[in-house]
C-alpha cells in the first residue's frame, strides 16, 4: 500500500480553485489584519492547515491546491501526517514543550535516544551531531566549529590559549579574534544572518544594509543540458571553476578556513554540482587544509532520491560537516571527527542548544522514510515525472529550457525566457490548482513531499501543459 493510500485515504482527488484570483478575498482580508502586527507582504495566501491533507494545501478561501512547493521544501511526509501527530502527542514531546530543557546544562534523560533516531539517518561517514534552530543557524554553528577546529590545528591539539589570545579577543583583535574566511559560491544561499549572509549571493534583497565579512565567492559550474550530450564541455566547466576555487584559497588576503557548498544550489536557480566537481573539492580542501562543509538544508532528507544529495557523489573521505534543516523540521550539523568538538566547554553553546521538540519530529520523519521506502518512491516518481516533462519540453522547448534534475528524485527545475514569463506561469498554475515555486530569476522548481506519487505528477503535468499553452 502506498503511503498516500495508507495515511491519506481522504486526500482530495483533484485540486479545486473557487476564487478568480489568488489570494482570494478571505485571504486578502486576513492578510490585511495580519499586516497590522506582522509583515505579511511575502504571503501567497493564508493557509488553513487544519483542512490541508497529504499533498494538498487549503487556503482561507477554501481553494485546494496540489502543493508542489511544500513550505519551501520543508514538508517531508505530507500535511497532517498521522505518525507525526502521534509523535507530537507523545509524553516526550509534552516534556520537551512544557519543560523545554536547556540541553547544554540540563539535558533530558531521553535526549540520547532522541538523537540516536536522527543519527540512524545521518549521511554516510557521519556519526555525531550538533543541533540548532534553523538552516541559517546550522550554517553559522558549522562556521564556528570550522574556525575552532582550524585554529586548534594551528595551535596544536591540546594546547592552551595564550595570555595574548585571552586579552586580545576581548578587544575583537588578533590573535584572539583571528582574521579567517569561509569560501562560498556565487548564486549560493546559506541564510540571512550575519556570517551566513556573507556567504549568500543569490539576491541582493537577502543581505542589503547589514555589514558583511570580506570573504571570497568562487564560481559555481554552469552546465549545458542535457548532461549526457555535453560531458566534455561540462568537465571543462568543472575544471575552470575548480581553478578559481584553488586560486582564491591560495591568494585571499586572509586564510580561508572553510569552504561551504550546496550540492544543488537551490535559491540560486537549481544549479547542480557534478560528482567530479564535489569530489575534486574534497581533494582540494584536504590538500590545502580547508574544512569542507556541505549545506544540505534544502537538498537533504530524501528529496533527490537519496537521504542526502551529496551521497550521489560518494565523496571520499567523507566531508567534514553536513548542515541540515527544512524537511527534517529540525536543524544542526553532522560530523565525524572528534576534533570538531571544541577543546573547552561553553565554546559551542547557547541556552537551548537546539530544540528537542523538533528533534523528536525529525526522528519520526527519519523512521517513516525508512519504513515506507520513501527514498525509492521519490526516485521512481521523479523518473516518471521527468520523462513527462521531457515530452512537454519537446512540445514547448522555449518554455522548458535547461530542464534539469534527471535521476535526482523530484528535485527538478527548468528555466523560462524571462522572469515575467516565469512569474506568469507560476500565477497561472495556482489558478489551475497547483502551488509551485520559483528560484533565481528564470527558474521553476519542484519541491513536493516524499508522499508525492505518479497520480499527483499526472495532475501537475496536465496543469503545466495548459499553463504553458496559455503563455
UniProtKB/TrEMBL annotation:
Any Pfam family: Aminotran_3
Q: Name one GO biological process term.
A: gamma-aminobutyric acid catabolic process
Q: Which PROSITE patterns match?
A: AA_TRANSFER_CLASS_3
Q: Which UniProt keywords apply?
A: Aminotransferase, Pyridoxal phosphate, Transferase
Q: What class of enzyme is it?
A: transferase
The cofactors named for this UniProt entry are:
pyridoxal 5'-phosphate
List its EC numbers: 2.6.1.19
Give the InterPro entries listed for this entry.
Answer: 4NH2But_aminotransferase_euk (IPR004631), Aminotrans_3 (IPR005814), Aminotrans_3_PPA_site (IPR049704), PyrdxlP-dep_Trfase (IPR015424), PyrdxlP-dep_Trfase_major (IPR015421), PyrdxlP-dep_Trfase_small (IPR015422)
Q: Which reaction does it catalyse?
A: 4-aminobutanoate + 2-oxoglutarate = succinate semialdehyde + L-glutamate
Q: Which GO terms describe its molecular function?
A: 4-aminobutyrate:2-oxoglutarate transaminase activity; pyridoxal phosphate binding
**GO cellular component annotations, sorted alphabetically?**
mitochondrion
Q: Which family does it belong to?
A: Belongs to the class-III pyridoxal-phosphate-dependent aminotransferase family.
Task: Quote the PANTHER family the UniProt record gives.
Answer: 4-AMINOBUTYRATE AMINOTRANSFERASE, MITOCHONDRIAL, AMINOTRANSFERASE
Q: Which NCBIfam families does UniProt cross-reference here?
A: GABAtrns_euk
Q: What is this protein called?
A: 4-aminobutyrate aminotransferase
State the organism of origin: Lachancea nothofagi CBS 11611
Tell me the organism's taxonomic lineage.
Answer: Eukaryota, Fungi, Dikarya, Ascomycota, Saccharomycotina
